[in-house]
Amino acid sequence: MIKKNIATNELGFVFNPSTGDSFTTNQIAAQILQWMREQHDIAEIKKRLLVHYEVASSVAEKDLDDFIASLKEFNLLA
Amino acid sequence: MKENPLVIAVTGLNAIDSPGPGVAVIRAIREGIGRPVRIIGLAYENLEPGIYMDGICDKTYLISYPTAGEEKLFSTINDINTREKIDVVIPNFDAELPNFIRIEKRLLEIGVKMFIPTEEMFEARDKQKLFAFGKQVGLLVPRDKVIYQIGELSSVAEEFGYPLVVKGRFYEATVAHTLEQAQKAFYKISAKWGLPIIVQEFIQGTEINIAALGDGQGNALSIIPMRKLYITDKGKAWAGITIEDESLIEIARQFMTATKWRGGMELEIMRTAKNELYIMEINPRFPAWIYLSVGAGQNQPASLVKLALGEKVLPFLNYDAGKLFIRYSWDMIVNVSDFQQFTALGQL
Question: Domains, chain B, ranges and CATH?
Fold first, then answer.
């Protein structure tokens, strides 16, 4: 899950206060980060993506995996 | 009844592309000292912007370069003091500090206080001895060689490989990728700052600086880490952001404990991809970005003034991460009469 000290907002701005790195995400990624903040696990986030967006299950799964890999790469996950 | 202002003299008014910290120090003091102040600027050149900026110095005097020696410095400050009754002086340049350290006691006798490192502290973090210092206190420092002749460059390059960093004793550093570039840097820097030249192993990573204030007893009263976001071609931070990272705070504490540092200082750090923290340089005075410490909630210059006056300063416990500073350039319009007065009379 996302580190507690990472700052995010609904516009998709992400700030890591440990490194000073900042990022911008699209609206869907901002929503995923919000769900992570609310302590929903990956399986639940996948389900929510399918409910909220018109997307095939396999595409949602792959996109979510890619996004999580990016979060790991940028050291944003606990 | 009107309270007499605290009279504080400050150097480093060169708010240029490679800025001195004076203007930032003065802003911080004016905002944080909580009593009336009269700021006396001490300038080395007649085009230092801080002389002419509104709301910075109440009066500025031209002083001689550090090469004129400690006697000249003492007589100048003594002379200014007879007119201004200075309470505190804050030197802001590495090169002037040895002279100020040597006249500290005499200044105190005429009522002028400072809160600066001792000669021993100043020497311990000297660029020429930094590697040995790091080894002694268990801090990572890149390998370096102190050289006096250009012919020594090739053997150092063989040992360290390229790129390598060619540094002046007090200021300036150039990253050299070939022997020719290293030789050019050697000539350029030695012509400006003299010998020796320090050749340092190049460390790749993210540049982080830490501004800190030591109480002289081994305690850090304030530590503010800042990541450089925009770096000029001279390697100076033009924008930066405060960050929170316990390992950075710890490294500054370790330094304070080892040296019992007295006064403001700056640690220049390189964080590698493996998360190693290398100390690249230790500056014995506040950095030019010190006003960010005010923005982050720890006014280091105002605290230093209180320490110089013998007042108790408690350690700051918190600061705001995610505060940015963004430097900008601004063209001032100055009347030629002001310029003439400062040039002709050495005061404005």
Answer: 6-116+331-345 (3.40.50.20), 143-201 (3.30.1490.20)
